[in-house]
Amino acid sequence: MISDISKSVEACAAHYGEQADAMRDYLIRGQARALEVNPRGPLKFDDDGNLDADIRAAYSEHGYYIFENLISAAELAELKQDIATMRARFAVSPEQQVDAQGNPALGADCKAPSVQWVKPLSDPLGGTELYNGRHQVKLFEPQASDDAPAYSPLVLMGQLQHSEACLRLYGHPQLLKVAEAINGEDFAPFNEVIFFKDPGLGAAVSWHQDGDTHWDSPAFDEDIHGFNFMAQLYDTTPVNGVWVVPGSHRQGKIDIKAKMAEQGSERFADAVPMLCRPGDVIICNRQIVHGSFANTGFEPRLTVNFGFHRRSSVLDVHGAGMHSEAVVYDAEHIRKRSLPIGLAIEARRQHFKDEQPYQYRPLANESIKWEPGSLAQLKDYNLLDLSI
Question: Mean pLDDT over all residues of the chain?
C-alpha cells in the first residue's frame, strides 16, 4: 500500500541542517504510527443503507478515516485532465490577469477569489492574522532551489465553476451518503478548493484547527464545525501529505503555541500523516489539529477538497468571514449555496449512467437540469460559501 519514499525522506531531511537526523526519524516514525492507528478501508454501508458502524466509530475516535480506492481509474484520469486544463489557464504571475498564451486567466472575470499564490516552500499563513489568526505558529521554511519560480499555486478556490469532472465528483452518491450519515439528510455545503503541493515548491500549512464560530457554543460537540472530503490524485506520504493529531477534534480549541513550546519542536510527537494512494478519499474532521510541511520531496500532491456542515451549525449563524463575506446565513442563503449539489448530482447522473444517483432532500422540490453550458450557472457561487 505504501510506496518507497526513502529518496523523498532524504531530500526533505537534507533541508533541515543540524535537525536533519531528527526530521528523517520523525518522518519514518510518523509513517509507522500512521499504519498502527490505521483508520482506513473500503467505504461500506449496512443492509439498511446506513454507514458501516465500525467506520462511523473509527471516524468519531480518530477524527479522520481513509476510504480506499473509492475513485475509479477512469474518473481519476478525468479529474487529472480537467485540473491540468485549468492549471494551463492560471495567470502567469499573481500580478497579471492573463495566462501563458495571453488569454484571460482562469478566474480573471470572477468577483470571488480564485488562485492563491505563495512563495515556494514558504509557510504563508503561519504566525499571521490571516484566517482569523488560526495558524498560530510558523513552520520551518526551507530554501527553494535557485531555479524555482517566484511564486507557485497553493489553492484554487471554487473549482466547481471551472471543471465538470470536479463537479461530478462533488455529486458522488456514496460520499453524499456519508455526508448524510454524519450531518443529517438536510446537510449543508461548506466550500471547495484544490490544494497543489508540487515537489520542491509546495508550501507548508501551519498546524491549525478549522472552524471559528462554535468553540464556546453550549451545543459544542465533535462534529459542530463539519468535515472535509479530501480526494487524492497521487500518493500522499509523510513528506507531502497532511499530518493530524488523532482525537484532537474532541478536545475543543487547542493552544497550539503552548503545545509547540511544550514539545520544543514543530514536530508534534502525537501527530501522524494521512497516507493515501491515488483514488483514496479522506473524511477529515475540521476540528482536528492538522498541518503539512513544505514539500521538499519528489512526489506531487494534488487534493480535491470539499466539505459539508450540519444545517443547524449554519442556519441563522453569523459567518466567520474566512472563506466568504461575514454575513448571517438565512435559509435562502443556504438554499442558493446548496444548488451546486443538485447540479452536481444531475451532471454525474448523465455521465455515470450505471450509478444510482443520490437524492438530496433539501432540493427535492427544485427543478435542476444539466445540459451543455450549465457550468456557467456556477460563476462566483463561492461568494456564498458557508464559513463557520
Answer: 95
Hey, how many other C-beta atoms are within 10 angstroms of the C-beta on 377? 13
pLDDT-based confidence at 323, cuts 50/70/90?
confident
C-alpha cell at 46: 449496512
The pTM (predicted TM-score) of the whole model is: 0.96
Cα-Cα-Cα-Cα dihedral sign, residues 169, 170, 174, 178: positive
Tens digit of each residue's pLDDT (9 = 90 or more) over 123-135 = 999 999 888 889 9
Which domains can be identified in the chain, with CATH numbers?
6-384 (2.60.120.620)
Looking at residue 322, its pLDDT comes to: 78
CB 303 within 8 A of CB 230: yes
> Are the C-beta atoms of 157 and 116 separated by less than 8 Å?
yes
How far is the C-alpha of 165 from the C-alpha of 176, rounded, in Å? 16
Q: What single string gives the DSSP state of each residue in 261-327?
A: HHHTSSS-TT-EE--B-TT-EEEEETTS-EEE----SS--EEEEEEEEE-HHHHTTPBP-SSSS---
Q: Is there a contact between 192 and 159 (Cβ–Cβ < 8 Å)?
A: yes
pLDDT at 1 > cutoff 70: no
The torsion of the CA quartet 301, 44, 36, 270, rounded to 10 degrees, works out to 60
